[in-house]
Amino acid sequence: MSDQNVAHQMTELAAGYALGALTQHETRAFEEHLAEGCEICGEEVESFELTASALDFAASEAEPPENLLAELLTRLNGVERLAPRSQDFISIRASEGQWHEVQAGIMVKQLYVDHASGIATSLVRMLPGASLPPHEHTRPEQVYVLEGDCHIRGQRLGPGDYHRAETGSIHESTYTVDGTMFLLVAPERYEVLSSL
């Protein structure tokens, strides 16, 4: 076999070398060939390395599927993923649940109660002109206004507004002029004050 044929065979290995795809034996032989000073193969390797590098940057970023990590971890752990139990998820549609009138013009639809903490998540609807009696908070209270106007501690809150009252604080007057509905995350029971 002539030196030219050997050089031609080695040139064919340049792409595989640049990509790290040669066997250990082929890699060693190709590196020895390069060390002998073959400029043609050296230029070929450099050209393929530049192309491979450009391809790395040409690929657009893609988000992996949401469940890919969970599936991978499941396979790595050798544990089959358990199907979610229906009681792990609760949905209450707007037309579901019951409204209870707690006092004139004020209705509450309880969505969830955490019995361990005594904290309830509820919707509260107040008709125009309705007001809550003065009350002390035995735990923090959070209000997120969904509709209308809600006046708390001298502030008018509207849709998207949030209010938090800390444990031990007192709401002297909570009322609405035109009616309101808000999400309430608060103690299941309040300390109603007869007068201030």
Walk me through the structure.
By secondary structure, the chain is an alpha+beta fold. The protein has 2 domains: 1-81, Anti-sigma factor, zinc-finger domain (Arc Repressor Mutant, subunit A), CATH 1.10.10.1320; 100-192, Sandwich (Jelly Rolls). The protein is 29% helix and 29% strand. It is built from 5 helices and 13 strands. It has helices at 3-12, 14-18, 24-35, 39-58, 68-77; strands spanning 100-103, 106-114, 119-126, 131-132, 135-136, 141-148, 150-152, 155-157, 162-165, 170-171, 174-175, 180-187, 191-192. The strands form 3 sheets. The chain has a 6-stranded antiparallel β-sheet with strand order 1-2-3-12-6-9, with no helix packed on it. A 4-stranded antiparallel β-sheet has the order 4-11-7-8, with no helix packed on it. Strands 10-5-13 form a 3-stranded antiparallel β-sheet, with no helix packed on it. A hairpin with a 2-residue loop joins strand 1 and strand 2. The longest helix is centred in the N-terminal third of the chain and has 20 residues, at 39-58. The termini are far apart. The model has no long low-confidence stretch (mean pLDDT 84).
Quick summary:
The protein has two domains: 1-81, Arc Repressor Mutant, subunit A (Orthogonal Bundle); 100-192, Jelly Rolls (Sandwich).
Keywords:
196 residues; alpha+beta; Arc Repressor Mutant, subunit A; Jelly Rolls; 2 domains; six-stranded antiparallel β-sheet; four-stranded antiparallel β-sheet; 5 helices; 13 strands
